[in-house]
């Protein structure tokens, strides 16, 4: 009977651990708008008891944040060979401290074992579509050693910083080479990196992390602030791949249209018709469910012709912009087809429409399109066909900047439109 009583006491104490008493939030974290994601190393080199201390760490940090849909949101993933996250612990899951803390447990975040692919975890979080714009975005990476591919990890951390993330890293254990941790962390290292010798010390980090993260301002990201009335027509042939829609989605996420001055049209066979006329300042544009490039449909030059007619019908106080995606058909078909595309774009430019050419799979100069358009004011962006769109931040910035420049163009006179 005594042993049963002792067992009952142990069970009771264990259950008490799940009933969290909220603490007073540090003043600097009150009403802080922030999205923060914890990336927890769960590879074989982490003992399970140490992994449990990682979970304790997340719970301790969460207890010092102002959790709500309006202020701070928290996400958690574990990683080894591949990252995993339960939906309840995503940014759009539980939205109060108690629920998050009660659900940061081994049932939702099981101990994985495996190799340490830190790069995959960082990439996974960076590409999540649920982060809010114009607020602080942060990742907190906890790991005990070298990742499987240090070069890939450094590159993914760089891409995350370029995408507007603050990168915190907590290095635990006797791993002496800090080079990889420094490659992950935002500068200065002394503010964004901890090098501790045991998982027991995570308690100290949990105390200091909120006071380091909460005062941070949002990182300045590329953005287009619409200042004039404009209408943008996105044009792509029936062979348009998902890469085209990734570029459009990136433009949408980074365009701010406070005055509702901007309208968007889609002359794209695989784009749902219910998106016609929606504002570009919309996060749901063409984001999923589109056919691959083998879709049959209208030829690209005919779609450009339709966009050109639409632009000509616009009033002289609205800037007209055509963003044309030159898909692989232009390259694969005859030179005549490429010239038909070029001539339609040339006529649009001559009518006063601004033109931005975007290529995702080949160089348009191979088709003499640029030659036909020489001497005219247009912009061109070429993405590398062998690299994911999300990894080509320079090209994404160019595409946004060129389109924004066209949208906000202020002519010295309004070109006459044909009747």
UniProtKB/TrEMBL annotation:
InterPro entries: ECM_Assembly_Org (IPR050525), VWF_A (IPR002035), vWFA_dom_sf (IPR036465). SUPFAM superfamilies: vWA-like (SSF53300). It comes from Plakobranchus ocellatus. Pfam families: VWA. Residues 1-18 form the signal peptide. The keyword Signal applies. This is Collagen alpha-1(Xii) chain. One of its GO terms (cellular component) is collagen trimer. Residues 35-209 form the VWFA domain. PROSITE patterns: VWFA. Keywords: Collagen, Signal. The keyword Ligase does not apply. PANTHER family: COLLAGEN ALPHA, PH DOMAIN-CONTAINING PROTEIN.
